Amino acid sequence: MKLWRENFAPNRIQSKCDEIDINLVATLSENRKTAICKIVNPVDKDKKVNIELPDGLRLGAVQFQIVAPDSLNQRNTMENPGSITPITGKIKVKGHIITFEMPGYSCGVVKIGIRE
Q1: Is the domain defined by 2-115 classed in CATH 1.10.10.10?
Q2: pTM, whole model, 2 decimals?
Q3: Cβ–Cβ < 8 Å for 49, 19
Q4: What is the spatial distance between Cα 44 and Cα 98, in angstroms, rounded to a whole number?
């Protein structure tokens, strides 16, 4: 939930995901300089995700944070509050396509800088 709150953006933008199991929502920051994609993989299989951006868009920095617990039973506790924490995920940017892996039962945020 913290990852979602820290990456709030008020303007929903059109997006679609061809991978049937992946849930994806895209938003745009108030200043229109950052697109934010929130992705959830609710199944136990790893999924490859491609985000294709419009050709006319000038990309800035792209960042990917992911939360991928070892199991559905893993929890943060008072004794181990950092058991589940976001980590920097690996992404590949080629032209206007951003590619990354979503492990089973994971969620992540891709922040895409937009230059004028």
Answers
A1: no
A2: 0.90
A3: yes
A4: 23
